[in-house]
Structure formats: C-alpha cells, structure tokens
Write a structure and sequence with these properties.
38% of the residues lie in helices and 19% in strands. It has 165 residues and is α+β, with helices and mostly antiparallel strands. It is globular and about 50 Å long.
Length: 165
C-alpha cells in the first residue's frame, strides 16, 4: 500500500481504492501462509448434521489455516478493523466475505477466502462474485430469509452481536 497505510473510506469516493486496500489484506494473509483446510469436525453438531467449528481469528492466524467460515470471519474482522463495511455472506454449505465498495453506496463486492493460499486476489474476487450471482439469480428463500444471506457486520452490531474477544 502507498505509505504502508490503510485509510478506509477517507477521501473522495473511490471504489477501486477500497478494492486496493482489500487486496493488500488478502496479500498479507497470503504472505502469512494462510491455507484452506476442509475441517468438518464439530463436537456440537447434532445427529446427522455435518458442520464446521468456527475458530476465532487468532486461532486461524496461529495455525495458518482456515475453513470457509474461519477465513470469512477472519477477513471480515480485518475489514472492520480497516474501517471498511464488511459482511459475512452465507449460501448453502458455504461462506465468503463481502465489503461495501464505498461507504453508503449500497454496492458490495465479494471475496472467496478459501482461495487465499492458492490463487490471486482477482481470481478469488471473481469466484465469490460468480457464487453470489448464481444464488441471487436463483431467487431462493430459506427459513431464515433470502439466499444468499448477507450478514452486514454493522447491522449485527446494532443487534448486539459483537466479537467474542
């Protein structure tokens, strides 16, 4: 990043400047050696359920591995710390991260966090965009609302949902 600085939404509206910051976070995690791991063991799962235990971001960083929800929570946390509006996007059996392209724009972009260790930023962004659009085009609705389910961190905070640590 220019000046080794993340500035959030400061300055004139520039969605590409926002994407540059997101890319810098992606590259930092790549350099840290974060790799995707398909961990399906969850000791809280009920009979017949296949779920994944969500690790805290510090655990993913320490072990340098993350499943889809771990990577999404980690990345959303980084975006929020960078003063960017983040979202956890849920589709059947999968999660990825989103961010508002500019504060108040209502336009969002997406990133496939499982690709941090194996692909470049643009490939991971394109994969998440495609996944989002595929489910949005199907116009599905589940028991908990429309799919994809976009859980905006700002909205979660309003409802009293905060990080565990």
């Amino acid at each position: 990043m220019p000046g080794r600085r993340i500035w959030g939404y400061q300055g004139r509206p520039d969605p590409e400047a926002t994407a540059t910051q997101v890319k810098a976070l992606f590259e930092t995690l790549k350099e840290a050696g974060i790799a995707y791991v398909d961990s399906v063991i969850d000791f809280g799962a009920g009979p017949g359920q296949v779920t994944q235990r969500t690790r805290l971001p510090r655990e993913s960083l320490r072990h340098r591995s993350a499943n889809c929800i771990d990577g999404t929570v980690l990345f959303a946390s980084l975006l929020e710390c960078a003063s960017l509006h983040a979202a956890i996007v849920l589709v059947p059996g999968h999660a990825f991260v989103g961010w508002e392209t500019w504060r108040g724009s209502g336009e969002w972009d997406y990133l496939e966090t499982t690709m941090i260790g194996s692909h470049d930023f643009e490939a991971a962004r394109q994969r998440a965009r495609t996944l989002y659009q595929r489910f949005a085009d199907e116009d599905l609705a589940g028991d908990e609302g429309p799919i994809p389910r976009v859980l905006k961190l700002n909205d979660l905070r309003v409802h009293g949902i905060w990080p565990m640590e």
